[in-house]
Structures
1.
Amino acid sequence: MAATDTMTAETPAETPATSATTPATAEQMRYIAAQAADARVNLEIETEGMTLNIGPQHPATHGTLRIIAKLDGEQVVSADPVMGYMHRGYEKLAEVRTYPQVTTLINRIDWLGSFANEVPFILAAEQLMEVEAPPRAQWIRTILFELSRIANITLFLGDMAVQVGAVTPVFFAFRDREHVLNQIEAATGGRFHPNFDRIGGLKDDLPAGWIGETRSAMRKIRRFCDEISELVEGNEIFQARTRGIGVIPAEVGLAYGLSGANIRASGVDWDLRRDSPCGLVHDQVDWKVWTHPDGDSFARFWVRLQETREATRIVDQLLDGIPGGPIMAKVPRIIKVPAGEAYVETENPLGLMGYYVISKGGLVPFRVKIRSASFSNVSITPWLLKGVYVPDIITILGSLYFILGDIDR
Amino acid sequence: MKRLSSPETTEATESAEPETESAETEAAAQADPEALALVERAQQRFGDNLAGSHADEHGVVLRVARDSWADLAQWLKDEGFGLFNFLSAIDWMISPFGRDMDSAVDTALGSSAATGTGDSDGDDDGNDDDGSDDDGDSVVEEAEGTGLAGGDSRFQLLARVNDVNSHRSVIVKTDLPEDDLRAPSWVPVFAGADWHERETWEMFGINFEGHPGLSHIYLPGDFEGNPLRKDYPLLARKVKPWPGIVDVELMPDEGDASDSDQGSDEGDGEASAADEEQS
């Protein structure tokens, strides 16, 4: 398994993404070359290929993603994800539903962080209607947006360890995620599908005592992060299974449209919450965007762990300063959106999520293009899985972190 | 297997390599002059092939001729838009089905708009003036019917790219003639366009020349038709009445309006009157 500097036809770097220029770090290139060398050894001894079918029902696929992996020995020659087992056709269904009804659909896209799905759509509709939510609604929106992020990513933090063989952390994740879900339920009435965001504001104000309880929930989440950090992050086996596995150079990740923690783990310092704030109040609080230069599975885990901590900080600060006032702007009871086009994207738990809404001036949108994060994030897998070992497929899929509803829409 | 030696995990804020060309300031990213300069450069680069453009505080929309679609991708990448965001299409045809099985309230309120019931005029080309009778609240000053940066064909390709260094973004479009639905593929420039083009091919029936393998991505392999085309019926609505009908309740002052009115204009007027009194 000696590393060589030469590339062969088997290298992942042969795909169009990197053919022009590959300013990946020398370390990353050496890693890719080492994998290529391994693949070449297998070719020389002429092992017989086989096809390994992973899924559609497989614990590591978080749903119904199927991966057809062609193997040569223990290594993947090509991997072909097959999706659509859960395709629900939301873009078509949205064309026959009124704007308030559409939010019911889009709650089911990323079902672990449902509230965050509603936000960009509502913001796009507000942009078309030239309505702005009152400050109090914007703050509460941002708090719920970050709570969705925590509810989503805590599960990843436990689940990632399961993918590499440690079962315990996922129980901690489910235990502590409950605190956040309780707060979401207390505020919105829905544990998983709040359907709480409205054009022009929010459905309801916060219940009494909610702020204090949320503060205590944030403390519990921070303790959970510390536990995960002790149990998993520094664990030697975990590091051996994740470091250097599934390295994504920044240029390749960008060409495939990776976003969120996946691209920040490749050293790209880009977060829409900070860089293109739109309708949310992240710019009012002090927080930090975390990046990691490695681009491997461990980096993706590490960035998400820091982001969860950062999200609790954001929530804590926002809870301090919720302004008073109404929670709904003046909007007509029957929502008719003026003709026009709007695209709004936000930094959702899984990455960049956007809605391209076209209205012709009626009760229903003319066309809704849903840009979901996982679809682009998973589209890199044919490139990324080429040349890896079979157990690393699961590590890489786990570290990319997708929700099937977010792929299939 | 060889592992990467990774640096300290305590602090890792600076991106490793793409820091070089981030000369743009964040303040300039939102400003109009920056957007206008981009449109200007596109004008110089594509000349007459830049068929339309639109710039406002929400961003830039460029529309090019189909011949320049492939060049556009490379130009965008050279301009610094390294992140491929999405690629899709728009079918500007008015749906011949409307919203199937709408309630009486829906039809009364929505009939003036393009989303109305059944489209009695049968006018199906994408750029008609179906919405002309509620022009009052139109905010689009471009060509009627085909949105920002204009356009005159039924099908339009729609894509978006971002610049992660200077935080700019741009939406691009191109018109496709209805009898010749094909466009050059973006895959050689943006590898991530692969799946998006497969989805667009499947949903709209648009061919991408140079794509490594157009095949079904969501739908079964033997599926016929292009579901996101407006003339593809939503069968669920045909076989089962829309349960949402019962959700729409009349307000006392609207009940008589929708009972009495036959013409859409009256119903519309009532609706906006009701809108204004609503808090």
Note: Residues 93 and 271 of chain B are 26 Å apart (CA to CA).
2.
Amino acid sequence: MSQSASISSAALSSAYGSVAVVFHWAMALMIVAIFGLGLFMSNVPLSPEKLRYYAWHKWAGASVFLLAALRLLWSLTHPVAMSAPVPAWKQAMAKWTHRMFYVLMLAIPVSGWLMSSAKGVPTVYLGLWRLPDLVRRDPELGTLLQGLHGFLNYTMASMLVIHVAAALKHHLWDKDEVLVRMLPFLRTPQWRQS
Amino acid sequence: MRRIALVLAAVLICVRGEAQAVEYRQVVAEKSSIAFAYRQMNVPMEGAFKRFAGQINFDPAKLVEASARFDIDLTSIDTGASDSDEEVQRKPWFNTRVFPQAQFVSSSIKAVRPNVFDVSGRLTIKGKASDVHTLVSMKQAGAKAVFEGALAIRRADFAIGEGMWADFGTVANEVQIKFRILATAEPVAGAKKQ
């Protein structure tokens, strides 16, 4: 199996294209913001502001889903090689971490959407397009899906902490190109070149 | 045999006679519903009132004497979310401590088409009265009849949602009240129970 795999990966560039980089950072910002808004809004007392925050949160969530789907298509059609030869177990970890992130980026908005439907509040994207309710109004199911939405979010938040820590470790400890290739503005510091 | 046929014919004539001179007087609350629909951040929302009492006096052949009155227990509101149920009891919304009930009293009922009536009356919510009228359709089935219709009101006319809720940007002014009333007939005076 390694024969064809290594040939094809050898032919691949290890550089992320600008589309992939923009996808990464745009979604990173959105996801952090929407996570913060989600935490914040649930503690706001019932008010017009709260209703607005929920609507924005849901619109942003639907946008994350759309972007994640497009990004998945892009990454499948534009594969990128590892920046340096790494042991198989590390490759497998990296691969599964990526997959897990994609699953969560798609599953979290869906769980929020279903939760909202079950709680009797349909989702109208940007206040313009009504998404169908895939589940009926059912308060018990709503509570269950709320739990799932929270669990998936905390799972992703934990993964994000590890993801950031790992990127920093690569950059500061291993002094390799892992972070730089996703952050092209971050040139190798002068003190490291000398 | 002839006797039996005669008796049957007499019974049939009696039953037919009764069905025409039917007067609906009893509202079956368990099989009736008073619901409402509105928009919140342009999202269609639905709710209902679980408790209400109705008194009707309705003979389609004697509309001049027909009347209807409904008293709705506003504390029985079901918005789909417990925090909203509590919120709407408060002063800016229904202020149910002072105004626990909403009331509709008909003033005139006119036939528009067969089985469709224009019902005018006075709707009082939160101490504010407004003249309203609505088209009501009737489906008769023997001693039972279902009356259905909808009534569009503006919440601001009744000061429902004051202060920070007065802005229609989050909760729209228009509210649809949808009702489905099952009523049963009492035999008209003089008719015998078979």
Note: The longest strand of chain B covers residues 171-186.
